[in-house]
Design brief:
single chain, 347 residues, mainly alpha, two-stranded antiparallel ribbon, 1% strand, globular
């Protein structure tokens, strides 16, 4: 198995080797079996029932959820809204299976994922942009390089790195424009490279990436699922403080997964689902009402891979306590964006 680059992976080796996860949905785990995936016959029957439930329509699942959660919570959550939320989750999970967003194998991005993601986060934090852009940019970069595996020309990978981040910012940033003017220019991207590349180089690479990706520029990322479900967490079930804890921790965990190659072959739906569960099971949230909202969340029968989500959950739980850092203090963020504002040409 190739040597992994992140400190997290050095401390906690992947629970299941990526090569043992085959198929788009991770249905086959090869010969290796992790304890958390060992199931009795009754457990397997329950999983089969769960799979049957997720094939139902959104309205049918709403009816089932109404049987398992309190009438108080149901009265505050409109059935039609919940039906729409479930439909959005299902549509996003369907996009995960699109071949346009699929890659496989241990490649350049996985070899340097820790450095690349740290570099991306430094720029994003320096510009005050949404951190999910990093996950989008990594998706662009990985797919593009997977389709150009033999190009080893000087600076090719570094130019692709810069361009993927620049494109992700332009397409997915909600605050790239301020007072009608852009807050980021292509000349600034050139400065990030320490003038190793020109504006012409960036424009040519941008055209090449758009063509290679066939204009599929909206890869599903874990934070998209959080956007769908977390606003509906019922304030009658938990206090605002606990709700904020769940939202903050789940987003924080999804951000960290961008640095960890363990999550590369895992569908974002499972990453998001596991992140929400970990957020509900950690810190003070577990003793001040999160159990109620967890029951509500699981009763929605949102589509995700049961086996993979279990692995994500345990991995995230390890990461949460390994880092021992508070996301409220932003201690995981880079100390200074200027420390890595120049492309690390050594990678």
């Amino acid at each position: 198995m190739p040597m992994l680059t992140t400190a997290i992976e050095d401390t906690f080796p992947p629970l299941v080797h990526r090569s043992n996860i085959s198929g788009d949905n991770g249905d086959d785990f090869g010969d290796k079996e992790h304890p958390i995936c060992s199931m009795t016959s009754s457990d397997e029957q329950e999983v089969h029932q769960q799979n049957d439930i997720t094939t139902m329509s959104a309205l049918e699942r709403i009816f089932l959820s109404s049987l398992s959660i309190s009438s108080k919570s149901m009265s505050s959550a409109n059935d039609c809204i919940l039906s729409e939320v479930i439909a959005q989750w299902d549509a996003l999970s369907h996009r995960e299976k699109d071949a346009a967003y699929k890659t496989s194998g241990y490649d350049y991005v996985e070899l340097h994922r820790s450095k690349i993601s740290t570099y991306f986060y430094a720029i994003i934090d320096g510009k005050g942009l949404d951190r999910r852009i990093v996950s989008v940019a990594l998706s662009y970069l990985k797919i593009f390089l997977a389709r150009h595996p033999l190009n080893e020309s000087k600076g090719f990978h570094q130019l692709a790195m810069l361009t993927s981040l620049y494109m992700a910012i332009k397409i997915h940033s909600s605050n790239i424009y301020k007072n009608g003017r852009p807050t980021i220019f292509i000349t600034e991207v050139v400065n990030w490279s320490n003038n190793e590349f020109t504006t012409r180089d960036i424009c040519k690479m941008e055209s090449s990436m758009l063509s290679t990706l066939d204009y599929y520029m909206n890869p599903p990322v874990a934070q998209h699922y959080l956007d769908i479900i977390t606003p509906l967490i019922d304030d009658d079930l938990i206090t605002p403080l606990v709700k904020q804890h769940i939202i903050t921790i789940s987003n924080w965990l999804c951000e960290i997964t961008a640095t960890d190659s363990f999550f590369t072959s895992i569908n974002p739906s499972s990453v998001a689902y596991a992140a929400i569960l970990v957020a509900m099971d950690t810190s003070d949230a577990a003793v001040v009402g999160a159990s109620s909202v967890k029951c509500w969340f699981e009763s929605l029968y949102l589509k995700h891979d049961e086996y993979i989500t279990l692995q994500c959950y345990e991995r995230m739980f390890e990461i949460y306590y390994l880092l021992d850092e508070s996301p409220y203090e932003n201690r995981y963020r880079c100390h200074s964006p200027t420390e890595v504002m120049v492309v690390p040409l050594g990678i």
